[in-house]
Amino acid sequence: MEKIAIHDANILIDLVKTGLFSLCLALQYEFMTTHIILEELYDPQVAIIRPHILSGKFLVIQISRDELQDIQQLASRHPKLSEQDCSAYYYAQQKNAILLSGDKNLKSVAEAEGITVRGIFWVIDELVRTAVVSKSDARTFLSSLRTHNKWLPGNEFERRVREWGE
């Protein structure tokens, strides 16, 4: 059975902006997010994701009323997390899934509860490891990522550039 991976908004944004979104769907995971996370994205970003939703390659979890109450309780217990963050956390926990997020607060809370959290570098590493993208292409994606996301640690970029050659 495929492993499940739940996307947070920041990972979706990075994947869409760098052109990696459709490529990441080639990995052997069942990828999904919640409808309230998808609602955070801009229309052009959703337009890139929508065909993959329609094809069934990317799933959107529709949150029930009861589940929303549970998520809101999580958000009240963790004031540094948004309701959207808590929805990703909640379903990662419920589905024993990997949580894909670059949010430090969300990562801290989720890992404290035993949830495996991975970020954008892990996605790119997996794409290279499984030969979905070449090392050369991965360097190009890293360059694009660095342009779009100034918050990511420079040492992680540099290590991969060295590992993947010039």
Outline the structure in words.
- 59% of the residues lie in helices and 12% in strands.
- The protein has 2 domains: 3-120, 3-Layer(aba) Sandwich (Rossmann fold), CATH 3.40.50.1010; 121-163, no CATH class.
- The protein has helices spanning 9-18, 21-24, 35-38, 43-54, 65-77, 83-94, 104-112, 120-129, 135-148, 154-163; strands at residues 3-7, 29-34, 58-61, 98-100, 117-118.
- The mean pLDDT is 94.
- The protein has 166 residues and is of the alpha/beta class.
- The longest helix has 14 residues, at 135-148.
- Strands 3-2-1-4-5 form a 5-stranded parallel beta sheet.
- It has 10 helices and 5 strands; from the N terminus they run E-H-H-E-H-H-E-H-H-E-H-E-H-H-H.
CATH topology of the largest domain: Rossmann fold
Distance between the termini: 37 Å
Got a strand count?
5
Structural class: alpha/beta
CATH C-level of the largest domain: Alpha Beta
Uncertain runs: none
Strand order across the biggest sheet?
3-2-1-4-5
Instruction: Please tell me the total number of domains.
Output: 2
Please outline what is shown here.
It is built from ten helices and five strands. It is an alpha/beta fold and 166 residues long.
Secondary-structure topology with pairs:
Blueprint: E1 3-7, H1 9-18, H2 21-24, E2 29-34, H3 35-38, H4 43-54, E3 58-61, H5 65-77, H6 83-94, E4 98-100, H7 104-112, E5 117-118, H8 120-129, H9 135-148, H10 154-163
